[in-house]
Amino acid sequence: MNRWAIFKRPLRGVLFVISKPALLYSLTSQQELKMRVKLDDVVEALDSATEELTYYLDKRTAEIVLITDEDIQAAEDDELISEYSDWQRDSILKAREVLGESEQFIPLPDQFEIHEYKIMEDFCRDFEDQQVGKELLRLVKGSGAFRRFKNAINEMGVNKAWYAFKQRELEKIAIEWLEENEIPYSREDAVDVSDASM
Which of 65, 35, 54, 61 is nearest to 183 (CA)? Predict the structure, then answer.
């Protein structure tokens, strides 16, 4: 399928133009722009969150933007952008844009708001085989809990169950964040134009 798909609906002569999988453009007679963020994109960003990485949603484009601590530091420095290598320039320019137009960018929940340790504990408590759940819960206590947990789920063969559980929990966090910020979203790559307001 090409980048652009055009659907003409007989109702009220509305033309829908869909580009970039994360966005839904609904062009009405007033040329009103409506965007939908892909829920999967938000979940992927939440799954990748670390102390050094911050994701933002650009409200103008519905683009999810990754900014590193290094990008922020470079953006705050007074050095010329030409002092940086080509591959760093785009990131630094985007970081400057985030810093300069902060009302246009909403930070996604960070790793502390996601609280993966609690998600691990919930997985252990909710696991259908209570013996396995208790053993995993024992392993997530103390220092090195993440490493022990990851090793144990692989050894016990429950890693697929863990990743499915984690995905569902991240999706709940993403939906809550999107709804709190009144950001329209879609659940799939395929956009259903039938539910668009006319």
Answer: 35
